[in-house]
Specification:
2 copies of one chain form a homodimer.
Chain A lengths: L2 H5 L18 H8 L4 E5 L4 E3 L7 E7 L1 E7 L5 E8 L3 E2 L11 E5 L3 E7 H10 L1 H27 L2 H18 L6 E3 L4 H8 L3 H13 L3 E4 L2 E4 L2 H9 L4
Antiparallel strand pairs in A: 1-8, 2-7, 3-6, 3-8, 4-5, 4-7, 9-11, 10-11
Chain A binds a DNA duplex through helix 7.
Chain lengths: ~240, ~240
DNA sequence: TGAATGCTTTGATGTAGGTCAAAAGGGGTG
DNA sequence: CACCCCTTTTGACCTACATCAAAGCATTCA
């Protein structure tokens, strides 16, 4: 095993418990190592894939931060999700063999390429890999239901609160601070994700700051009162 | 093979090309037949499962019409989807082993039960079954992106137009009329799905009727001008 | 270092859709 | 068959968020 191989082994990756091989045993992990042969670096703003591109590989985010955008024929688009280390991208392409959304790096990022055909083959041999893949796809479906709930039933400030708490929780799961982080996306991208305009996002941020729920300064956010933020979500009006 | 077995064989089911075994060869289909041992009948209003129920089986809708509802802790809920013959339900439960939404029959319905553990096992042996399962899960993810786009970027009438065209297209795919059908859900349920109030749905229906796009009488809908309906969706305002 | 550019904030005003209310159908049930 | 209840329609009014506009900051690049 040469150095290059070693460098991209899942078994020695710090994200292995968050990512595709979560829960695999050493012997299984060794086989998954061979699944991932390539990494790809992306500069901020660069597309990982675009709607229409044929599916060849899935991508596991190794570092950085990305967004996926759903698009309508008429040019409208909406941020469908923000993705960070350990997240698996490209699942939308399995149904038709072509990507159905765009994926864009919001900061310099690195992804591991997972050949999909090989993943299917290997997951036939490794039940726990198979199950993990199913869990990841199912988790994405559940996440989507959450976004629908947010877009369909919540008011502006509830949406932003939910968004911040979700980010916070995901950073925490990756060993970063749950209360202090930098936003990688613009107000406009947050707005797109939450079904709101950037001005509304900005105003909601200002209001949260006034109420001492958070401190925001440009991209930097500190959550001062996660409990009240959480409470705010339950407050569907009268 | 006794009569009971025969009765629920996928291989002789008229929905087989829409459902889980789509695209399988005869030999593979025979094995899938053994996957499905039970059917379950539901009366209108009855729950197929509720959030929190443990995952044991997935459900393929054999006949009837169902809704799934995503729910938030605070009691808010939203219709996450409407489902008809050939659709596979329960995928949300794979990630955690428990259902994350409710599924309710909107009319008397029948579903086939597919033991999930056995499905995973069999799909390890039948690559095309495995791939079809992946495609179905991916299709659900893509569908969800479409709903997000709808909820995040469209106006009321665009949403309703998109909803009607989607129903129309799905009925057509099942051999029913694309232009004339009965709605199985209430205005309130349509509203919930589309992130709108029932009054808004009602007004939009009236407006479409005035404009000769459709005829509506209670639950019965006839689409008179699908083309203009389609055009209406592209019309994001100035 | 300074100019250019792209974000963000904040204010003033407009409007799509929500809310409240009432009446009219329809369908199921005894 | 008649009653009741649930759904739907329609009108009048209200509000949360969008839109328009302008100024203030950062970051980048020359």
């Amino acid at each position: 095993m040469d150095l290059r191989q070693l460098r991209i082994a899942c078994s020695s990756c710090s994200l292995r418990e968050l990512c595709l091989p979560a829960g695999l045993e050493a012997r299984e992990m060794a086989r998954v190592d061979r699944l991932v042969n390539h990494r790809r670096k992306l500069r901020r703003g660069e597309h990982l894939y675009r709607a229409g591109n044929p599916l060849a590989v899935l991508y596991a985010i190794r570092s950085g931060f990305m967004k996926t955008c759903a698009l309508h024929d008429d040019g409208r688009e909406q941020v469908a999700g923000f993705h960070m280390m350990g997240d698996l991208l490209g699942l939308d392409a399995i149904s038709s063999g072509r990507h159905m959304c765009d994926a864009v790096a919001l900061e310099d990022s690195e992804v591991c390429e997972i050949p999909f055909a090989y993943l299917e083959q290997l997951s036939r041999e490794l039940p726990s890999l198979q199950h993990q893949l199913h869990r990841i796809m199912s988790r994405e479906i559940v996440r989507d239901y959450g976004v629908m709930l947010l877009l369909g039933t919540m008011k502006a400030e509830e949406r932003l609160a939910a968004f911040l708490l979700n980010l916070s929780q995901r950073f925490a799961a990756r060993g970063y601070s749950a209360t202090e982080f930098n936003l990688r996306m613009t107000r406009e991208e947050i707005g797109s994700y939450l079904g709101l305009k950037l001005e509304t996002i900005s105003r909601a941020f200002s209001r949260f700051q006034q109420d001492n729920l958070i401190e925001v300064r440009h991209k930097h956010v500190r959550i001062r009162d996660p409990e009240r933020l959480r409470l705010l979500i339950g407050q569907q009006c009268p």
